[in-house]
């Protein structure tokens, strides 16, 4: 039995009036219940794609279906299934968070009594209830971002699209947002996330697409993508300065400073032989860490490869 | 969305507009009250007492009351929707509505209803002020009420079209300053166009506001410079054409969607 994808994008194209080709035939599929990462460098086409899905941008060609409903030909029905947390703040700063949420529900035809209950529920869950009746402009940046999540949840969408929801938010609030969104996903809502915090995507998402210059350059599971990473770089903090670096088979060592070295090695190479060699040379390692987030390394490589190919 | 959902969405936009009008009442309701009081004092009392009767034995102050009420309705219904909808575009919260399942006509109807309510509220305020200066006899209540409703609808729709095309705040100030104000002053608010000579009398008949002012004057005073049927045909035609333009703009996303 085949299930209808939560999102099925087919050959989606967008050329702006100024001639910029933002999407050059993007196709991807997101399964119901997935937590899906859509990554790409600035200007890759992520926001254009999200704009088309939320009907704020008119596509030039192709189509997108949300649970089988076409965004282009059945706009109203498709929008009922989508909740959007945009990248830019787009609520009326003079209104109160409670009113913003209740009005949002009203736009979806949800009765006011139900809307008031939901507004209280989501504003409380996102720790905004104490600010619910103050003008939104008085809230901090992190609160405004959480308000946009609460607003998007008012229609209890089947597909929640988050366009850089944690941009500029401190780590504590970011983690509380991750927890909330994970809970929403666990309850059955399909989530599509774009972010520049790749650690966020690696921790939360099960599947991933990378878009670059209007094309999907990778679309796979997070596990498969990370398994492609054949080389890792570790940063070793030494107990004493080490001027002459030892030769270790299969490991490329380089200095960062006198007491810090980098070790680049394949994933097949074990760390024991590295430590054994360093130990015989009298080099004591105090601590060790990954140089970069694994997904970050892959992302940079894929985008760089794309540039070379172009 | 089904009928009930559309009704909820319509009420949500209208309610939001009314709350906005009442929240900033010093910008939305008070200015017309002050301006029209000045018109009644200066043109009605001071100048009007020297003019005396103007048409069919009607005193000048009585003659200008319908025109001044219509002037307030026109400027307020137009100004409300153009500033509110452009503000929503400028602040990007129009996206809340554009990305929702609401059909275009509900968005248009909600904003128009809000602007019409402001027009009617200001009309009631100006009418109440006029009672300090003169006595009003309502000759044709249905003509009076339907004229004020149609006029508010026409200028709400016109303000909406202006707001959709506007790219900066200056763009929503241009039409009221350079089009609406001259047309209103030349639309028979302060005089009867029958008193004008050729060709100014004929030229005045090309001004749609003339028909609105005179239909309203017929309702309040029982006199008009234009046939009532023609006046209603003009108002209805403008309302239908402007509603069609507004819907087309929303459906196609012109000025709203990339």
Description:
The complex is a heterodimer of chains A (310) and B (258). In chain A, 34% of the residues lie in helices and 28% in strands. Chain A has 10 helices and 14 strands. In chain A, the strands form 3 sheets. Chain A has a 6-stranded mixed beta sheet, sandwiched between helices. Chain A has a 4-stranded antiparallel beta sheet with strand order 2-1-4-5. In chain A, β7 (159-163), α6 (171-186) and β8 form a beta-alpha-beta unit. In chain A, α3 crosses α4 (112-125). The mean pLDDT of chain A is 88. Chain B is mainly α and 258 residues long. Chain B has one domain. The two termini of chain B are 24 Å apart. The interface between A and B is medium-sized, with 34 and 29 residues.
Order of helices and strands of chain B: HHHEEHHHHHHHH
Mean pLDDT of chain A: 88
The termini of chain A sit apart by 40 Å
Look at the helices and sheets of chain A and give the structural class.
Answer: alpha/beta
Distance between the termini of chain B: 24 Å
- The value of Rg of chain A in angstroms is 23 Å
Percentage of residues in DSSP E strands of chain B: under 5%
**Total of helices of chain B:** 11
Q: Which class of secondary structure composition applies to the elements of chain B?
A: mainly alpha
Features:
heterodimer, A: alpha/beta, six-stranded mixed β-sheet, four-stranded antiparallel β-sheet, 14 strands, 28% strand, globular, B: 258 residues, two-stranded antiparallel ribbon, 11 helices, 2% strand
Q: Short summary of the structure?
A:
The complex is a heterodimer of chains A (310) and B (258). Chain A has 310 residues and is an alpha/beta fold.
Q: What's the structural blueprint in terms of helices and strands?
A:
The complex is a heterodimer of chains A (310) and B (258).
Chain A: E1 7-15, E2 21-30, E3 35-39, H1 46-53, E4 61-66, E5 69-70, H2 75-79, E6 82-85, H3 97-107, H4 112-125, H5 141-153, E7 159-163, H6 171-186, E8 190-194, H7 198-204, E9 207-212, E10 215-221, H8 222-227, E11 231-238, E12 251-257, E13 260-266, H9 271-280, E14 285-290, H10 294-309
Parallel strand pairs in A: 3-8, 3-9, 6-7, 7-8
Antiparallel strand pairs in A: 1-2, 1-4, 4-5, 9-10, 11-13, 11-14, 12-13
Helix pairs in contact in A: 3-4, 3-5, 4-5
Chain B: H1 3-23, H2 25-28, H3 30-51, E1 53-55, E2 58-59, H4 60-90, H5 94-98, H6 104-130, H7 141-165, H8 169-185, H9 200-204, H10 208-221, H11 228-252
Antiparallel strand pairs in B: 1-2
